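#onboarding

Welcome to the new folks! Below is a worked example of what a typical request in this channel looks like: someone posts a single protein sequence, and someone else replies with the predicted structure as tokens. Don't worry about understanding the tokens yet, we'll cover that in week two.

Example request:
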Amino acid sequence: GLLCLAVLHRHLVQNARVAPALLAVAAVGAYVSAVFHADPESATTASLHDEIHQTASLIAFVSLIVAMFVPSRDFRVDTRWRRLARPTRFWAICALAALLLTLTLNSVDDSLFGLGQRIFIATWLSWAIATSAHARTLAAESLTDAVELREVAPA
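Example response:
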């Protein structure tokens, strides 16, 4: 999903380079994190799998949050995306707050870590869905415009 969003963002947002790269890094980090599992809470020492999982997760989460802040600037420049600039910044701030909440909940009570993770996931996933929906609308408008141009142009 994140990799597709990176490609979509690169092709549909004017001069977008940094956010798509960060989204791709987040996608790879999420994939690596899924392949390498965290140790159970009963583990006394961290395994290599756990270390890789934790590192890849952190890289993915930070890349994703930064990738949410960058488009808020890119969207302001591109008139087709301008209406999503401010909401994107708000989503990015919420994602950062959710990540900090997750880390805080983990330090308070380990059993609340999953709750924080789900809040974080809901935050960035809702942004990804809204961004993808807007991109789909833009693509449909482009297709409609292209069809209209073909009908008007002489054969």
